[in-house]
Design a protein that fits this description.
There is one protein chain. By secondary structure, the chain is mostly helical. The termini are far apart. It has four domains: about 220 residues, Rhomboid-like fold, CATH 1.20.1540.10; about 130 residues, no CATH class; about 55 residues; about 50 residues. The protein contains 16 helices and five strands. The C terminus is likely disordered. The longest helix has about 55 residues.
Length: about 475
């Protein structure tokens, strides 16, 4: 299905998108002119062998060859093979690019588009097992535009033209799902048959993954979670995830203890330094656990990338590259879902019209059903937790009187039958503990950590309602 237009509304003029469209058309006219002259293949073969020229430049250290490779990648982004190639690419481009340009800004969108094309070419060169020297077309950069568009506007309606020349409206998220399934199926058929289809599927996937990751980072900034303190927290989560995955042999901890330590450290730092109080701390763990899950995906992707560079060109190397793309896609989608549950700080210059109930698409109804199913699962989990708390409270109310009587009997027996030297030793240990506790509190106050200490005490001894916690 070829997308035609969306239903988004924006005020700015997408002049960068118009310029990119015009440049693609002019370059294609030049290609047709060279084809009529019979020298098209000769010119393209001389300019676009990226892999051979780049390898020679890195081997010899010649900066001219390296710059020529970069220029060749840039040039290939505006060249197309035939009329069907440029028609499909430009339909995709103009359906998704203007709204994304209005959201990013003109210069940022231009840089994003070029970098998407470069990343798509890098993904193709990393997964090419048959030795193709170069690729043509803007498909990789447009894949980045599509990935970023869906992350930012998942509920935007897109009108598309089917092969039977029917117009169908669907949500952009379902359009991306169809696009990804088509790419992976075509790639699986190509790898299974061993015959090249003449389409750089891996370039489409690589550009799309880069666009999704970039849009997810933009969403993090939109919800106000891209300040320096947040980046330090993300760095801590990455360090904890890397330590849990790599498990350096510095400390003889068991396998599971590394992961428990990573979760505990990240959760404690978030609750201690990013929350106003410790009250209901178990309800505030969604953010640190989500950040840690994304960090685990990024660390695993980096590990797969390291394995990629250690292997020779072939199917195993290509599969590692695809695993990196899959992990980064999951990380981007997880980040986007988490950001959608937070209030937006910045006002977006692009608006999504709200459809009337009777005009809702089948895709929107299915999307809401999926979200409703997850919300129902969450409500059932919350109900189960509440049931466990209720049962625990009833059990405590039944056991507490018996435990109190047992404790009183034990205390009476100790006071009556324990020797004097044991009693004096227990009193000495108690006084030592109180003395050490006093020294610890003095050090905490001297280091101006009394606010954190008071929160910990308020949480652990159950005095949240009576202990006032004030800023120093």
């Amino acid at each position: 299905m070829i997308p035609i237009k969306d239903n988004l509304r924006y005020n700015s003029i997408a002049w960068v998108s118009v310029a990119i469209f015009a440049l693609n058309v002019l370059m294609f006219i030049g290609e047709m002119t060279l084809d009529n002259m019979g020298i098209k293949d000769t010119v393209l073969t001389g300019w676009l062998p990226v892999r051979d020229v780049l390898t020679a430049g890195i081997t010899t250290g010649d900066p001219w060859l390296i710059l020529r490779s970069i220029a060749a990648v840039f040039l290939a982004m505006f060249l197309h093979n035939d009329w069907g190639h440029i028609f499909g690419n430009m339909c995709f481009f103009f359906a998704f690019a203007p709204a994304l340009e209005a959201r990013m800004g003109h210069f940022k969108f231009l840089v994003f588009y070029i970098v998407s094309g470069w990343m798509a070419t890098a993904a193709f060169l990393a997964t090419d097992t048959v030795g193709v020297a170069h690729i043509l077309g803007a498909s990789g950069a447009i894949g980045g535009v599509l990935g970023a568009y869906v992350i930012y506007f998942p509920r935007a309606r897109v009108d598309g033209l089917t092969p039977t020349f029917n117009f169908i409206s669907t949500l952009s998220v379902f359009f991306l799902f169809e696009y990804v399934v088509m790419q992976w199926l075509s790639l699986a058929i190509e790898m299974g048959t061993g015959e090249a289809a003449g389409v750089a599927f891996s370039a489409h996937i690589g550009g799309m993954v880069f666009g999704m990751v970039f849009a997810a980072l933009m969403l993090v900034g939109d919800v106000g979670r891209a300040r320096l303190k947040h980046w330090l927290f993300y760095g801590l989560a990455l360090t904890a995830a890397a330590g849990a995955v790599l498990q350096p042999g510095v400390i003889g901890l068991p396998y599971w203890m590394w992961h428990v330590s990573a979760i505990a450290s990240v959760a404690f730092v978030w609750v201690a330094f990013f929350q106003p109080s410790f009250s209901g701390w178990w309800k505030k763990l969604a953010t640190p656990l989500t950040v840690l899950a994304v960090a685990y995906m990024v660390v695993l992707a980096v590990g797969r990338g390291a394995e990629f560079f250690q292997q020779q060109m072939g199917i195993l190397q290509a599969m590692n590259a695809y695993a990196v793309c899959l992990l980064l896609t999951l990380a981007a989608v997880t980040t986007a879902i988490a950001c959608r549950r937070m209030p937006v700080v910045k006002v977006s210059p692009v608006t999504v019209p709200v459809a009337k109930e009777e005009d809702r698409l089948l895709a929107e109804i299915a999307f809401d059903c999926v979200i409703g199913a997850f919300r129902w699962i969450g409500s059932q989990v919350a109900a189960g937790i509440a049931l466990v708390k209720t049962v625990s409270r009833i059990a405590y109310q039944w056991i507490a009187p018996h435990a109190s009587h047992a404790g009183s009997a034990a205390a009476a027996g100790y006071d009556r039958y324990a020797p004097d030297w044991l009693k004096s030793g227990v009193r000495f240990i108690a006084h030592c503990c109180l003395f050490l506790a006093g020294i610890a509190m003095a050090v905490v106050r001297f280091l101006r950590l009394d606010r954190l200490a008071r929160r910990l005490l308020a949480s652990y001894i159950g005095m949240r309602g009576r202990l006032a916690v004030t800023a120093p």
